[in-house]
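Encode chain A's predicted structure.
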Amino acid sequence: MTQFPPLPQWRKSSYSNGTGGECVEVAELHDSVGVRDSKEREGPHISVPRSSWAAFVTSLRRG
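Encoded structure for chain A:
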């Protein structure tokens, strides 16, 4: 029997204000992090290596 990977659990930023503005959602994928537009949930997403995502988040936190 073929086993498929579990569906990604997308989550929105805690900084999102819920008014429908520009926001992204992220999900832990098998070997990367998925990023998509929260207004286009059925649209495409990009996948970035975990190390690149971690560096990006670190740089945002530093300001």
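The chain is about 20% helix and 25% strand.
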